[in-house]
Design goal:
The protein is α/β, with parallel strands linked by helices and 257 residues long. The protein contains nine helices and six strands, in the order αβααβαβαβαααββα. Helix content is 51%, strand content 14%. The longest helix has 21 residues, at 50-70.
C-alpha cells in the first residue's frame, strides 16, 4: 500500500468516526434488509474470478453484522440467493452454494447471531437444508441480532407460499372457503409470510448502484426507506453503512413528524 492509499484510508476512518459520533441511536432502524449486489462486477474490475467475488462478498457479512450490533439494530435480512439464481451456469452456481453454506456455518458458530432461513427450502440441495436446520436449532437460544438468511428467496414466491399456507391452515381448522374469503385481510396474509413474526424492514440497502428491489420482500417493504449505494458489496465500508444510517435518520425525522 502506497502513501496515498494510506492517507486516503486514514481520512475515510476519521470521517467515519465523525459520522458515527453524530449518529442518533434513537433513530436507528430496527430491521435492515440488504440486497448484497455487485460481487461479480467487483471481481471483474479487480481482474479476478466470479467465485473470488462471491467469497469476498461472503467475508463482508460478519463485518457488516458487527456494525449493526454497534448501532442497536435488532433484525437483519440478507439476500444471499434468489430463486432466479438457480438459472445460472452450474460452474458458477455450485461454488456459490458451497460459499453460502460456509456462511451459514460461520454465522451459527459465531455465537452472536440468531440465524433464521427465509425462502423456499425445497429448492435447496439436501446438504444445505440440513445445514440451515442445524444453524437455526443451534442459535435458537441466542439473544442477539436475528439474522434472516434469504436463500432460495423470491418475493413473489413468498407471497404465493403465504397464500398457500393460509389456505392449508384454514383447511386444517375446518374453515370453509366462503368463511375464509369473508375474513381474509392484509394482517392474515402477513402472518403467513416467511417473516410473519418479525417487524417489517425499516431500511433496505442495495449496493452496486442498481436502483430497484428485484422482488426483495415485496410485501414487507411497502413503507420501508431505501438507500442505494454505488459501491459494490465486497467493497462496502463502515463509512458507507454509517451514511445509510444517517440518511435514514434524517428521513425518519422529516417524515415521522
Amino acid at each position: 500500500m502506497n502513501l496515498r492509499d494510506k492517507l486516503r484510508g486514514l481520512l475515510v476512518r476519521l470521517y467515519a468516526r465523525r459520522v458515527e459520533g453524530h449518529l442518533d441511536h434513537a433513530q436507528v432502524p430496527g430491521h435492515i434488509g440488504v440486497i448484497m449486489d455487485g460481487n461479480r462486477r467487483w471481481a471483474k474490475a479487480a481482474g479476478s474470478t466470479t467465485v473470488h467475488g462471491h467469497r469476498a462478498g461472503a467475508e463482508k457479512i460478519e463485518e457488516f453484522l458487527g456494525w449493526c450490533a454497534e448501532t442497536d439494530v435488532e433484525v437483519v435480512t440478507l439476500w444471499l440467493l434468489s430463486t432466479d439464481n438457480f438459472e445460472r451456469p452450474q460452474d458458477e452456481l455450485v461454488p456459490l452454494l458451497g460459499i453460502i453454506e460456509d456462511v451459514v456455518r460461520t454465522l451459527a458458530a459465531d455465537g452472536r447471531w440468531r440465524v433464521r432461513h427465509v425462502g423456499t427450502r425445497d429448492l435447496l440441495p439436501q446438504g444445505m437444508q440440513t445445514t440451515l436446520k442445524e444453524a437455526e436449532e443451534a442459535t435458537a437460544h441466542v439473544d442477539g441480532i436475528v439474522v434472516n438468511l434469504a436463500i432460495g428467496y423470491g418475493g413473489r414466491q413468498e407471497i404465493a407460499d403465504a397464500v398457500r399456507s393460509m389456505l392449508l391452515d384454514a383447511h386444517d381448522k375446518g374453515v370453509s372457503m366462503e368463511k375464509l374469503a369473508d375474513t381474509v385481510d392484509i394482517e392474515m396474509i402477513g402472518r403467513h409470510l416467511y417473516t410473519g413474526d418479525q417487524p417489517e424492514p425499516d431500511l433496505v440497502i442495495r449496493t452496486s448502484g442498481e436502483q430497484r428491489l428485484s422482488g426483495f420482500m415485496l410485501w414487507q417493504t411497502a413503507h420501508s426507506e431505501y438507500y442505494f449505494c454505488e459501491v459494490f458489496w465486497p467493497a462496502f465500508r463502515k463509512v458507507d453503512f454509517l451514511r445509510a444510517m444517517r440518511d435514514y435518520a434524517a428521513r425518519h425525522r422529516r417524515y415521522g413528524g
